[in-house]
Amino acid sequence: MAVIAMREALNQALREEMTRDGNVFVMGEDIGVFEGSYKVTAGLLKEFGERRVVDTPIAEEAIIGTGIGAAMLGLRPVLEIMTINFILVAMDQVVNHAAKIRYMFGGEVGVPVTIRTPGGGGQQLTAQHSQSLEVFFAHVPGLRVVAPSTPKDAKGMLKAAIRDDNPVIFIENISLYNTRGEVPDEEYLIPLDKAEIKRPGRDITFIGHSKGTLLALEAADRLAQEGIEAEVLDLRSLRPLDCDAIVESVKRTHRAVLVEEGWPTYGITAEVSATLMEHAFDYLDAPVKRVGGIEVPMPYSKPLENAVIPSVERVLEAARSIL
Amino acid sequence: MVATRQPATRRRRSEEMVDTAGIPPETLLEIYETMCLSKAMDDRVWVLAHSGEIALAVSCHGHEALQVASIYALRRGYDWMVPYYRDSAAALAMGLTPRDMMLAFFARREDSFSGARQFPNHFSSRTLNILSGSSDIATQIPHGVGIALASKMRKEDRVTITYFGDGATSEGDFHEAMNFAAVLKIPVIFLCENNEYAISVPRRKQMAIDDISNKAVGYGMPGVSVDGRDVFAVYRAVQEAAARARRGEGPTLVVANTYRIDPHTSNDPDRFYRDPKEITEQRKHDPVLRFSAFLNQHGFLTEEQDAAIAARVAAQVDEATDYARSAPQPVPEDAALYLYGN
User: What confidence score (pLDDT) does residue A259 get?
Assistant: First the structure.
C-alpha cells in the first residue's frame, strides 16, 4: 500500500471517478488553472479539459443551484465550495432543494450531487474561515453527510459519494490535507454509513470524526502509556449516524468521551450523547463527557486560537474525570 | 518615488494651467503622502509575512490612487466607509494609522479593531466611520446600503461608500443590494475596484462583459467607468456620485479600473495563473509613480519635499512595526469577550 497525503487521496478519487464515468465533472471557484485553494483538483484541468473542470464566477448559490440542475438530468457533479464558511449563502439550495427534490418529486428525480468543502480551524484564518458547520447539514433529512479522518477513508468515501444517488455533503478539514496514511493500491469503496474502530480498547471509548478522531487517537496513545486502553471510534458518517457501532462499543467499555472540533452545543457530540442515553444508558458507569471548540467565533491571535480549539489535553482531562 | 526628477529650484507653473479637479496643492501632497504610506506599509507587511513574523499579508498595491482619491472626494470623518479586505490605503486616508494596522497584523491585545480577533486587513473604527470587513465576498455591499438607508431615515446628508472587487459582482449580495438601493434611492456609492483578478480567476472568466459599469443599467442607476490609476478621474467620479446621493437622487456605480500588482495574499502562488511579464508590464503604470511624476512635472512636489515624505513614511512604518512587535499578546482568558452585549 502506498502512503499518501489526504489531498492526494482526494485527488485520486476524483481522477478515478472522472475516468470511470463521463457524467462526472467538477465545478467550483479557482479549481481549474489554480487547481483549488487546497490543490485537491491538481492536474484535472490538464487531463479532462475545460468541459469537465469548470472554473466558475464567485457565486456559491449558482454553483450549487446549477449543480442540482445538472444532477437532475443525470450528470454527476462534484462541486467544490472553497471553504464551508462560504456555503452559507447557498444554504437555500442545499436545504430547500438538494435535500428535498427527490421527495417532492415523489421519487421520480434524484440529485446525485457531491459537495466537497473543507471546514476546521487552526490556521489563523479567523471567524469566517475556521468554522466546523457539519451539524447544519447533519440536521437535514435527505442529505448524506460524511467527514473522513484518514486518506484511505477520504478516497473510498469520495468515490462512494460520487456514485451515490443522493446529495452528499463531503466535509474535509483544512488541517488534515497534509496528513499521510496508507491507501490500498487496488480500487475500493467505503460505505457512507459506517463508523470504524480506529483503535480497539477496553477501558473507555473515544468517539469523534474528522480532526476529532486524530485528537482521540493521540489521547489514546498517551493513556496507553499509563496502562489505560481507550477505544477510538471514528464516526466517518454524520448522517446517517452509525448508532449500532456507537452503542456496541460503549456497551463494552462503559465510558465515553465525545470529541468534535466545532461547538458542542446542539453539536455532533450532543447527538451521539443522546444516542447513548437512549440505547446504552444501563451500560454506562459514568456520565458521558464532551470535548469541543470553545463557543466563540474563531479569533485570529495564535494564543487565543489555541485556547479555543479543542486539544489532546482537554480530551485527556475529560477522560481522567470519568476513569 | 519621483520617476522623473526635476531641479529642486524649479517653481510651480501657474495653477490655472493644471486641472487638479479643484484639489488644493497642499491636499495633493497629502493624498500623495498617504499613497506612499500605503505602499510602504504593504511592502513591510509582505516582508513580515514571508519571514513568518505575521501570519498573513494583504496588499492593495495598484489600488492606491483610486482608494485615497475616493476617500478625499468625500467628507472624511462624516461619511461612511464600508470596505473589503484590500482597502488599506482608503483606511489610511480615513485616518487610521500605521500603528493601528501593525497592531492588528501582529495580533496584539492592544489592536483597536478587535483585540486580535479579526483578520488583520479587516480594520474598523467607530469614530472614523469605518465598518469592519468580511472574509466572505460581497456581503458588505448590503451592509453599506443599510448604513446609507439609516442616514436617509435620519435625514442626515451623510453618504456611504462601499468598496468591492470585480469578482464580488458575481455574488447575489451585489445584485440584490444594487437593486434595493436604486429602488429606494439610497445615498450610497458602489465603488468597484476592478483589478482584473479574483484570486486566480481573470475578469473575462468572471463576467461576459468588458465594462463593469454596464451592470448599473439593469438596476436603473448611473454607472461610470474610470481609470483607477488616475487620482483626478476617480476624485471627480466619486465627488459627482456623492453630490447626487446628497441631493436624494440615489446610488451610483463607479468602476475604477486598475491591476492587482501583488498576489491575492502573501499565501498566493500567483505564478500558477499569470505571466510574470504581465506584472512587469503593469508595474510601469504604478499609480504612486504616476502621481509623483504628475506632481513633480507640474511643480507641486520638489525633490526635497519628496525626500521628506519618503523619510516620514519610513519612520512611521518603522515606529509602527517596532511598537507592535513588542506589544503584549492577548490573553486566553479574554477569548470570550465581545461575544454578547448586555
Answer: 98
Residues A269, B342: Cα–Cα separation, whole Å: 30
Long-range contacts of B273-281 (CB under 8 A, 24+ apart): B273/A33, B273/A34, B273/B200, B273/B202, B274/B197, B274/B200, B274/B202
CA distance B77 to B84: 18
The answer for A 102-161 residues in CB contact with B (under 8 A) is 124-129
CA–CA gap between residue A60 and residue A53 (Å, rounded)? 16
CA-wise closest residue to A272 among A310, A303, A236, A223: A236
What ipTM goes with this model?
A: 0.91
* Shortest CA distance from A304: residue in chain B: B332
Q: Is B166 on the interface with A (CB under 8 A)?
A: no
Annotation marks residue B273 as catalytic: yes
Count residue pairs from A and B with Cβ separation < 8 A: 106
CB distance A290 to A274 below 8 Å: no
What pLDDT was estimated at residue B12? 53
Three cell numbers written together for A179: 496528513
**Within this chain, do residues A35 and A178 fall inside the same structural domain, yes or no?**
yes
A140 and A224 belong to one structural domain: no
Interface check for A61 against chain B (CB to CB < 8 A): the answer is: yes
Averaged pLDDT, B28-44: 98
Cell of A182: 496508507
Residue B106 pLDDT grade (very low, low, confident, very high; cuts 50, 70, 90): very high
Exposure string of A53-86, with b = 16+ CB inside 10 Å and e = fewer, is: bbbbbbbbbbbbbbbbebbbeebbbbbbbbbbbb
Give burial (CB, 10 Å; 0-12/13-18/19+) of B108. Answer: buried
Indicate whether A224 belongs to any domain: yes
Q: How many CA atoms lie within 13 A of A195 on its CB side?
A: 26
Rounded to a whole number, what is the distance in Å from the CA of B91 to chain A's nearest CA? 20
Residue B328 domain flag: no
- CA A61 to chain B, closest CA, distance in angstroms equals 8
Residue B336 pLDDT > 70 = yes
Question: Which domain covers residue A160, as residue numbers?
Answer: 2-183
User: What does pLDDT average to over chain A?
Assistant: 98
Asked, for residue B307, whether it belongs to a domain, the answer is: yes
Q: Could you identify the residue written with the cell 451515490?
A: A164
Which residues in chain B have Cβ-Cβ distances shorter than 8 Å to A300? 55, 107, 114, 116-120
| DSSP annotation string for B220-250 | TS-EEEEETT-HHHHHHHHHHHHHHHHTT--
Q: What is the pLDDT of residue B17?
A: 74
Q: Does A29 touch chain B (CB under 8 A)?
A: yes
A183 pairs with which residues across the strands? A2
Instruction: Judge whether B256 lies within some domain.
Output: yes
Say if residue B167's pLDDT is above 90: yes
DSSP run (H or E) holding B43: helix B25-50
A-chain residues near B56 (CB < 8 A)? 124
In the prediction, which pLDDT does B342 show?
76
Length of chain B: 342
Q: Is B129 left (phi over 0), alpha (psi -120 to 50) or beta?
A: left
Judging by DSSP bridges, how do beta strands A168-173 and A114-119 pair with one another? parallel
